[in-house]
Design goal:
alpha/beta; 6 strands
């Protein structure tokens, strides 16, 4: 027999939260802030894959820079994209296209003391990754299609409760069904994503805290252990018809 169930996976919340609060993670976060010289950080972390919408994300950031000149020299987008399936020609083309796009945008907007996009093709250890999340005012998670997307949940788990960042999330990610206090966007629309970025960057602390507290409660409660127990319970509760044992 076949039974379809909704059972969204979570993260190991306690472990990830502890990692984000270590002395090492805090030192790395402080080093990042010093390196950025008070620039407001927007962060995207995705494996290098066409489904993650990185090209559309860069186009949206470019639209933001075109329409909000007051943000020049005050914001930076850090996009981390570790290589994925590098031996496959299609993925090689994705990497080449993104390198070219990031270079073109930087070439158009950069000044001698400001580069709007820092594009990195490498992975990071957990302490570095949690520090990156914690230092970022905006988490930009905009896949074109994703079954869940745990980066969105990791970003929330890593935030400082006293000064949390804002999550911008694709409505085409499975996590959007659980994380409704994020700013939900259509990743195919550069205008909509740029508008959400502007909203996130201007959002007052009180609203940031309100949204964060609701999101954090969901990430903490519906974690990987909740997922495991719920999934196993659904299996054990399934009744086998007589004669089919």
């Amino acid at each position: 027999m076949v039974r379809a169930v909704v059972c969204p996976i979570g993260i190991d919340f306690d472990n990830f939260r502890e990692a984000s609060e270590t002395r090492e993670a805090n030192a790395i976060a402080e080093r990042m802030r010093t390196s950025l010289r008070q620039l407001t950080m927007i962060v995207g972390v995705d494996r290098l894959d066409y489904s993650k919408g990185i090209e559309e994300r860069l186009n949206s950031f470019e639209h933001l820079l075109h329409t909000h000149e007051e943000l020049h020299r005050s914001v930076v987008l850090i996009q981390v994209a570790p290589p994925s399936r590098g031996e496959v020609e299609q993925y090689q083309k994705v990497r080449e296209k993104l390198n070219e796009l990031a270079g073109r945008i930087n070439g158009e907007f950069a000044e001698v003391d400001w580069t709007p996009i820092r594009y990195v093709n490498r992975g990071y250890a957990r302490a570095e990754l949690t520090a990156l999340y914690r230092a970022a005012r905006v988490g930009l998670v905009t896949p074109l299609r994703d079954g869940m997307n745990l980066v969105a949940k990791e970003y929330i788990a890593a935030q400082d409760p006293e000064d949390p960042g804002v999550l911008i999330l694709s409505r085409f990610a499975g996590a959007a069904w659980q994380m409704k206090e994020a700013l939900l966007v259509n990743p195919y629309s550069p205008e909509e994503v740029a508008e959400a970025l502007q909203q996130a960057l201007k959002m007052p602390l009180s609203e940031r805290k309100r949204r964060f507290e609701t999101l954090l409660d969901g990430v903490r409660t519906e974690n990987v252990h909740w997922w495991r127990e719920k999934f196993v319970a659904m299996i054990t509760e399934t009744k086998v018809p007589p004669g089919k044992e």
